Amino acid sequence: MNIKKNIDRSFSKWFEIYSILVCGVIVVPLIMLAMFLQNVSWLFHFLLFVCGWLVWTWIEYHAHRFIMHPKSNKWKTSTSQSHQHHHRQPSKLEVTLFYRIVLFVLNCCIFYIAYRLNNFFTLFAGFSWGAAAFCYIHYLLHQRWTRAFMPRHHAFHTYHHCKYTDRCFGVTVTWWDHLFFTAPPKGISLSDRIVDFYYQSSTPKQ
């Protein structure tokens, strides 16, 4: 038991360092480049917006992996239990149409404020729009009709729901799973039964 705890602790510490380094290596150079290009207004704001969005996707991955899917009962919360319910009932989404509309309006206001301030607040605008994009993309990933133009993204999220709940934690983007070794195995496929369950066309057989 002590050996397992030590291994888990070592892995946790290694992962924390690796994860922060990966995020830093991607984001910090972009922020430095944005600072260097402050005289080119549109490029400055574009880079800051992208940085904010990237930081959101990084946080999204970790929240999904460690908060929504805790490794022990000790870390279970009402949020993680609600997420597990979503796994059992994929069509039940917490964010309703009303909240999606409110998010859109709110983020339009934030974007306008960033435009008026014309400074590093754009970084927060990118982060905020990242959170909104997560809600919209998650909704689209549970609609069968969107498979036509984002099939790989659909398959990735379906793997997480139905076959590999300990992998595929990225929702907005999938690259963090590749960087953090939680991508699904190559060469796998999804049966019609699993696909139907994911879109709630039928109930899975036991």
Quick structural gist:
This protein has 206 residues and is mostly helical.
Relevant terms:
0% strand; single chain; 8 helices; 206 residues; disordered C terminus
The largest sheet, given as strand count, sense and whether it forms a barrel, is:
none
The average pLDDT score comes to 88
The percent range for helix content is 55-70%
Shape: globular
Strand content is under 5%
Question: Uncertain spans, ≥5 residues at pLDDT below 50?
Answer: 202-206
Describe the structure.
The structure is a single chain. The protein is 67% helix and 0% strand. The protein has one domain (2-198). The chain is globular. It is built from eight helices and no strands. It has 206 residues and is mainly α. Helix 2 (41-67) crosses helix 5 and helix 4 (97-117) runs antiparallel to helix 5.
Topology:
Layout: H1 2-36, H2 41-67, H3 78-88, H4 97-117, H5 121-141, H6 151-162, H7 175-179, H8 192-198
